[in-house]
Design brief:
The structure is a single chain. 42% of the residues lie in helices and 13% in strands. The protein has 391 residues and is an alpha+beta fold. The protein has a 5-stranded mixed sheet. It has a two-stranded antiparallel sheet with strand order 1-2. Strands 8-9 form a two-stranded antiparallel sheet. The longest helix is centred in the middle third of the chain and has 21 residues, at 146-166. The protein folds into 2 domains: 52-231, Nuclear Transport Factor 2, Chain: A; 233-391, no CATH class. It has 14 helices and 9 strands. The termini are far apart.
Length: 391
Amino acid sequence: MSAAPSRSWGSYSSRRQSASSCPTRCWIASQRSGRPPASTWTNASEAGGYSPAGTSSCPSAGRRGWRVPTFSADYLARLAGATGFRSDTLEKVLRLGRVLDQVGRHPFLGERLALKGGTALNLFFGAQAPRLSVDLDFNYVRPVERDEMLREKEEIERALGLVAEGDGYRLQWGAREHAGRKTYLHYRNALGTPDRIELDVNYLYRVSLQPVLVEEGWTPDPDFPFRARLVGLEETLAGKLLALVDRGAPRDLYDAVGLAKGRWPHDGARLRRLFVVLSAGLDRPLPTYEMPHRASLSHAELEEALVPVLRGNVHPQRDALTAALAPVMTDLATHSDPEKAYIERIQWGEFQPELVVEDEPELLERVRRHPMLLWKAENGRKRRRPDRAGG
């Protein structure tokens, strides 16, 4: 079999760049020239101008001369036939993968953002993509003080905006929140339907509790490979379980069932510690949440949320999913005395993570510096604690 043609992530034309020290502009200029910048990873074979059959670049109307990758309906239909996924969702994955790859190669963004959530689990940690995921959830992962984070936050948003506009997306910024804010990348898909990719950066989780990984992602077309920096597996799984407890969305439920079925081999003890420690980020104490969660979720709700991201031969059944999840939820709802003490005390500003993670000194040191947990404890100290009798 002959080798696949070399590919190019910089095969579109850039608009004229003004002189600037901004690393994003330097990055885009390097893409224009075909020479890789001083990025976080490089591949010499990527200097070519190859575009797989069924794809092209075209000027994006109203985007000041950018050239944008597009995908033909026939090309996407072939991918849909080969993978079993819907063509519009596959197009979004291809676009998402390109954004991820460019973020990872970016000389400023690449060392500061790590992917987490459903996309990390299903496109990177999940063999053969058990489901597709179409959002980008990042942690800012530089363990710096708040003032430096705020200075870099502005540059990160500017860099993300330029990268996205470079691929012709119309940007919509969400409201600023304490942890960060969302960005929506709007485009018109191959069917002519308006669509968007949701991108979120969280700045409160900037102390990673596990080493950041670099992995190749699942792609429907080998000619469109991509990679990304990822939050560690157990930390990502803990976040997914906490999302299930907090919001109980159908995709959280589906992923948690995958965990129950052994889809992601992991360190169970570490996952438990991270789940309990990070539960402090919930709006109220973990034991006050109803588990099993969302037992009343209707079959219609499940289908509406899951069918677009599952293979055509996979049909989610509410009763089967909730039954498979029951042992996991029962375990999450059962807490040891040290876990109960940690959960209770941090509500009132007493931050004692050693109650949960004393067996892992390195992890304990990271937990003690975690901005979200420190912020939670600080807020807890401002509240009036009820009578501690018996506690």
